[in-house]
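Re-running Protein misato homolog 1 to confirm reproducibility after the cluster update. Everything else is unchanged from the original entry.
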Amino acid sequence: MAGGAREVLTLQLGHFAGFVGAHWWNQQDAALHERTDTKEPPGELCPDVLFRTGRTLHGQETYTPRLILMDLKGSLSSLKQESGLYRDKQLDTAIAWYLSFGEEWEMCKNAGKQRQTGYDQSPISLRQGKLTTHKEELHPKNPYLQDLLSVEGVLSSDGIWRVKSISNGKGPTPLTTAATPEPLIPTEGSIRVWSDFLRVHLHPRSICMIQKYNHDGEASRLEAFGQGESVLKEPRYLEELEDRLHFYVEECDYLQGFQILCDLHDGFSGVGAKAAELLHDEYSGRGIITWGLLPGPYTLGQEPQKNIYRLLNTAFGLVHLSAHSSLVCPLSLGGSLGLRPEPPVNFPHLHYDATLPFHCSAILATALDTITAPYRLYSSPVSMVHLADMLNFSGKKVVTAGASIPFPLGPSQSLPDTLMQLGGATPWTPLSACGDPSGTHCFAQSVVLRGLDKACHTSQLTPGTPLPSLLHACTTGEEVLAQYLQQQQPRARSSSHLLRTPYKVVPPYPCLFSSLSQQGLVLDNPPTGAGESIPVLGALCSSSSLNRTLGDLAKELAKLNLRRWASFMDAGVEQDDLGELLQELRSLAQCYQHGDSLMD
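Result of re-run:
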């Protein structure tokens, strides 16, 4: 990687993880294209940490996510598993549906009727001596993605796929044969799966489909933790994952670690646990940060089995992932991890539908892009391992997340003004389903504030004016933020970063914001089309709120009559496993008792 980037390999496991990941990669792509289009100098965030360069068989340069993605059969819609960037006949043949031509040929010969068959990517069966083909209907491409056809390239008259080179943010796109049309804004009703709004080109080795389970329908669902663990115990899927890991890892010069985006509520919690175990065993010393994702709030009116499975999967996932990860952070807009539903979290300047994965995942991706900034900077001593070590002392491997989206800076306000107005309240909305953080203790925290104009970093009061607070006496924005955090949590270990790079809000990001200017400032009467970029504050905290959350989770599990949910146990979990789970949850909860801090 150019410039000695400290590479990170991302694993994206599950369908809601796909939603969050699609927004995440779209944001990286938007930042790359803005820098290329406006000819800006390199920003603070290094894209080579997440992306890799490559070349097609015809010599064109590509720039694709360093990503391994696992999802279920039927989740790709119109997205091609093999991607269009490296398209060639041999590759198409290699990834086509597996057809047992040898067996068919023998059956035909035995019937005395030799036939020739060709690859049509359809399964073949023999009925009464006749060859029958069964064709599966193609998924129509979402209208929003139609404009990507001109980006992928065209099949020229000489039979060669002419691919347009993908921008890496370091110069003009070298191959363009037509202007890329302005993207449409997708409607919520047009989004069925995450691939309906993914605008980023993926490498052919990125997508790994679990064919034995279905995304849609009631049959063959990946519902339980034990099922997920069993997937990566099968040689077929384990070897496929290992091969893809080796492909990406071996081309890295300074691999700092792995980030796992993993669904916690379904069987992918088991897939994530086995994947983390594999990474821990094979790549010792590398950072492994896991983001456990839960979709929007649920209701008690749902099927009881789904709620019980969600509780069990979340508990097993948190315990097993924390055993093999450097750090684990649950991410959700719900108010609770337990069985009793709580209202979704509220953002003062953001309006969203908590029942839509498209909305919820956009918000979580915004927070994720901000709180991961420390280990993606061009110039920063913070690596994934360093970040985890700062937060996970004394066995505290689970952390909480929070964000202020957007950060509520008003016109003519400075950073000290805004922070002083917040008073003693927590300046961010909690995003880990751990309830109200009021009155809780923070042991350690990593805070990132991005997108403020440098003129707003310090007080704008005229000389001689009495200072409203100590924050107004600070001479740099970094000092303002550090001083504020020290005032809020004087006994916590704190790390803070102040970045000028805002979060880009461009299609397909949903229209969630109100009362914002073009620069993301809070206004009473915003202009039409406001909010192309926003300031965001994000935080990771080792918090005493986890003592209550994990303890309550253990109490709810202890009350379950597992004989009613034998199907969960039949999926590969034994009674002794549940006993160990309860013990581990209680031990983990005790790590977060108030009074246990670095400063004691």
